[in-house]
Design brief:
Residues 1-58 form the HTH lysR-type domain. The chain is of the alpha/beta class. The protein is built from 10 helices and 11 strands. 30% of the residues are buried.
């Protein structure tokens, strides 16, 4: 049993297909099948049930993959620690972040990070939060930057606060009337706007879960006229008068800030934490720790 075999078996388990795993690792399918058979013969037990489609792990296979992930993490942690000890300034960090948040947070973060760690390559995986967390647990990313999951995280994950971000109600000119606002005119009253046509993000996005909770708290069901995958798209449509929407503040900051839109905060308690998440047992090297601190410095000070 060697590290190469551990990697091959875990990738096949993730892909649920020998063909897909072979393509991902740039190895021929027959060669990968031979490696799997060799490992199974050496262990004297089957790791995969090939009668199922897609192929699934046997009970022994589940134990193998679980332990393989731990061994590979320990190997990577050791490499990182030794690099730190040797004061190395080269390496790679893979950051998982939703695509629009990447456009908002990464330009300034990378500019500052590169000034101190010019030899460290930053790679990104851009997807919705649920996909990014799965990728993190598989060891495909080092850090994930997403809003706090109110349902909680698994015990293997650790999160740190970067900054707190308000949620904003956005609508076209003339849509919001005085009776829809609090007495001081600062906040929108959700119970007064539930009948408006809403543009909301599709299920699986963090803001969709937040919006669904807002309507549940009001005892109402949103009048959805459109679902989208983009907060920026939702803001532009709402601003045109097509409907109302609720988005994180960074979706309007990209266009120059609140003064550019007819938008209102939802109230003191309607905000979420934007966190960085990593595997609790992983070793954060100096570059990763600095990357986190740069984000905190740049964005926490804006609140």
């Amino acid at each position: 049993m060697d590290f190469r075999e551990l990697v091959y078996i875990t990738v096949v388990a993730d892909c649920k297909s020998v063909t897909a795993a072979a393509k991902k690792m740039y190895i021929s399918q027959p060669s990968l099948s031979q490696i799997i058979s060799k490992v199974e013969n050496d262990l004297g037990i089957k790791l995969f049930d090939r009668t199922a489609y897609p192929i699934t792990l046997t009970y022994a296979g589940e134990k193998y993959v679980d332990t393989a992930r731990k061994i590979l993490m320990m190997k990577d942690n050791l490499r990182r620690e030794l690099t730190d000890i040797g004061n190395g300034v080269r390496g790679k960090i893979t950051v998982g972040i939703p695509v629009e948040r990447a456009g908002y947070m990464l330009p300034e973060t990378l500019k500052e990070f590169r000034r101190v760690y010019p030899g460290v390559e930053i790679r990104t995986q851009e997807a919705k939060a649920s996909v990014l967390l799965e990728s993190l647990q598989k060891g495909e990313t080092n850090l994930v930057v997403i809003p706090k999951n109110e349902d909680g995280l698994g015990p293997e994950l650790q999160e740190e606060l970067i900054y707190r971000e308000e949620l904003l109600f956005v609508a076209g000119p003339g849509v919001v009337t005085p009776d829809m606002l609090t007495e001081d005119g600062k906040y929108i009253r959700m119970e007064r706007v539930t009948d408006l046509p809403f543009i909301i993000l599709k299920k699986g996005h963090a803001i969709r879960r937040a919006v669904d909770r807002l309507f549940r708290d009001c005892g109402a069901t949103p009048n959805v006229i459109m679902e989208t995958t983009s907060n920026i798209n939702a803001v532009q449509l709402a601003n045109s008068g097509y409907g109302a929407t609720i988005v994180p503040e960074r979706a309007v900051e990209i266009f120059g800030g609140r003064e550019k839109f007819n938008c209102y905060p939802l109230g003191e308690g309607y905000a979420w934490d934007v966190n960085v998440i990593y595997l609790k047992e992983s070793y954060l090297d100096g570059a990763e720790r600095y990357f986190i601190e740069v984000m905190k410095k740049l964005f926490a000070q804006r609140r």
